[in-house]
Amino acid sequence: MSGMIWRAACLILIYACFLSQSSCLTSGLAEPPEPSVMLGEVACPSKVLPGRRFQVNVSVVYSCGERTMVNVGLFSPNSGSILDPRVVFLTGDGAKNFLFELEAPDSEGVFELEVLLRYWHLGFWVYNRESLRKTLSIRILDQVELQVSLPRRGLDVEVDNLRLKTDGSGVAKAILKSGRHLVKIPQTVNLTADTRLIFSCWGDGSRSNPRIVEVQNDLKLEATYEPEYYLNVDSRFSLAYGGGWYPAGVEATISISSTVAYININPLLPEKYVFKSWAGDVDASTPTVHVKVSSPMAVEASWVRDEFSKMVSATSIVIITANIAVTVFLVFRRRLT
Q1: For residue 151, is the peptide bond before it cis, meaning its omega torsion is within 30 degrees of 0?
Q2: What are the tens digits of pLDDT across the range 241-275?
Q3: Does the N-terminal or the C-terminal CB of the chain have fewer CB atoms within 10 Å?
Q4: Residues of the chain where predicted confidence (pLDDT) is lower than 70
Q5: Cα(157)–Cα(228) distance, rounded to whole angstroms?
Q6: Are the beta carbons of 313 and 320 closer than 8 angstroms?
Q7: CB-CB neighbours of 90 under 10 Å
Q8: Which of 199, 206, 246 has its CA nearest to residue 225?
Q9: What pLDDT sits at residue 158?
Q10: Coil, strand, or helix at residue 237?
């Protein structure tokens, strides 16, 4: 049906132009210069799923001194017909794009198309030139490529039951049938003993891991990871708080008791230590301090021994011992009398 409409339109246009050309010849006017019309860039997918719609974008570059009729369409060798032919009139210099919406065959194979362009000049169609035609070969294939991009090479990626590893560019690739697929990536990537990466989200905003993706065309998923650093808080005498993993830029709070009793050799004479300061990646003299974690950090509490408390403890023990000795002596003496 479209072929009949195409032929009828062409006959009408040929006849109209023929009359116009005849009038020009009889009036003795000079022949107009031949316009320059050629195919520019033709953009189309290299691969399409069976039965799916796709687009072909055809650019026509022209330089026409007078109004010129141009006809462009896509010829299908399989059907022997022109698909969606277009007729336009062009004047001046420029480029015009034509967007064709097509549907792929239902079976796999190669879909051959030919872009045909022609223009009307001096009562004839000009078409038999290389610049006015271009062959297209589009693969009809029920396969899609899924790419998963991670921050480094050698990381595990699971797609359904398929186990992959990222290449030198941090990309893992899988050839799949179109449809729904389960994708799983590492939640944590350890870089060093005190630096790691934590999964944050996918490029489309999803925070699910694993996640199900609908793959109808070639798809690239890019995962975003955020760095975390380990804050090591150490103390010889007392339990320190605040150590652990922190996201980059987060403020951590570390704290410790200001005094501690430490039993060294004599359990009757515990030594008292007083907090002095924090040493290492934090310089502070208060037991509780807030720090911004922007890299791996190591902090250690410094202590000083309280000599006065030790002396008081020793004196107290001497007094207690003396009292016990006197009491024992008095009791023993009473028994003798």
Answers
A1: no
A2: 999 999 999 999 999 988 887 656 555 556 788 88
A3: C
A4: 1-30, 262-270, 307-323, 325-326, 328-337
A5: 21
A6: no
A7: 20
A8: 199
A9: 96
A10: coil
Nearest by Cα to 74 from 27, 113, 111: 113
CA–CA separation, 323 vs 245, rounded Å?
A: 55
Q: Closest Cα to residue 256, out of 272, 233, 279? A: 233
Rounded distance, CA 291 to CA 276, Å? 18
How far apart CA 46 and CA 103 sit, in angstroms, is 14
DSSP, residue by residue, 288-302: SEEEEESS-EEEEEE
Nearest 10 degrees: Cα torsion 316, 322, 327, 330:
-160
For residue 316, give the H/E element and its range: helix 307-336
221's enclosing H/E stretch is strand 219-234
The two tokens of residue 325 are 């000795």
Q: Which residues pair with 112 in a beta bridge?
A: 137
CATH fit for domain 2-140, picks 1.10.10.10, 3.60.9.10, 3.40.30.10, 2.60.40.10 = 2.60.40.10
Pairing label, strands 81-103, 156-159: unpaired
In whole angstroms, give the CA distance from residue 41 to residue 136: 12
Residue of 224, 227, 195, 194 lying closest to 209 (CA atoms): 224
Q: What is the pTM of this model?
A: 0.61
Instruction: Count other Cβ atoms within 10 Å, centred on residue 234.
Output: 12
Give the span between the Cα atoms of 199 and 232, in whole angstroms: 23
* Architecture, CATH, for domain 144-228: Sandwich (2.60)
- In whole angstroms, what is the distance from residue 71 CA to residue 66 CA? 16
Token couple for 37:
């019309």
In this predicted model, what pLDDT tens digit does every residue of 113-143 receive, in sequence order?
999 999 999 999 999 999 999 999 999 988 8
